[in-house]
C-alpha cells in the first residue's frame, strides 16, 4: 500500500470570530442531551463538557446536558442518538470512531445515518509508554519492539482510532504489538497507571499531563509538526514514518432532523467556540478549533469515510455490517 499515510483533513483556525445573535427555535424539551459516546474522563468527555459549558454560558433557550454513553468503540452512544426523535433534544459529539467502528463491524451507524451539524476541534495522537515500560524514548521503543515482536502489551479500543493509529505506525515501522482491548481512554489510562499495559495512544492534553507526573513516557507524536506542549517528542515523520493521525470532534443530530434545527445548533456551536474560557481550556490541552458548517462537514466526512475504507481494505480489516 501507499507508504504515505495522512488521514487528518486539512483544517483552518478560527481567528477573530465574534459572537453573534443565534436565531431561536422552539424545541419540545427543557434541556437537550449532548451524548458523549465515551466514558467519563477521556478526551471526548472533556471536549464535550467544555463545549457544553460554553454553549450554556450564552444562555440558549434550551441548555445542553452532557450524558456519557460509552462502549463498543463509541457505537453505543451513536446508536442512542440515531434512534432518538429528530426534534433537536438529543445530540451526539463524536470523532472518527463513528466511521472506523462502522467499517470494522462494531455497529450499524455511521455519519450518513445522522445529520452532521458542525466540526468543532482537531487534536493529534501521542504514542505513550507506561512508567514501567522497558523503553524510554522513540528509538529504544522501536528497537525493543523489533527485538520482541508481539510482546509489548498495548491498550486500544479494538477497531477504533486508538487501535488504527498504532496499526498504521506499526506497519510502516515494521513492528508487531500485542493488543489488549479496553473500553475507551479512561480505562487505558488506568491500565497504564497500573503498568498493566506498556503502551497506548492518547491525546495531547492527557499525554502532557501524565508526562509531567512521570506516569507516561511520551514517545512519538503522530502530528504534522512537534507539539508545543511536548517539544522534545519527535514526530513519526521525523523518524521516517509518514503517519499523521488525529481526532476531529463534531456534532450530530438524528436523521430527518429539520434543517432549521440543524442550522440553529451550527450557529450556536460556532458562537460558543469564541468563548474566552473555552479558548483558554483548549489551548492548555493542545486542542485546536477546526470549525466546519454542516455542508462542509458532511463533505469532509465523505472524504474521510472513503479514505478509511480504502485503507482498511488494504490492511485486510474492512468488515462493514
TrEMBL record:
Q: Which InterPro entries match?
A: BUG, Bug_dom1
**Pfam families of this UniProt entry?**
TctC
| Superkingdom | Bacteria
Keyword annotations of the record: Signal
Q: Which residues form the signal peptide?
A: 1-21
State the family named in the UniProt similarity comment for this chain: Belongs to the UPF0065 (bug) family.
Q: What is this protein called?
A: Tripartite tricarboxylate transporter substrate binding protein
Organism of provenance: Pelagibacterium lacus
Top-down, what is the taxonomic lineage of the species of origin?
A: Bacteria, Pseudomonadati, Pseudomonadota, Alphaproteobacteria, Hyphomicrobiales
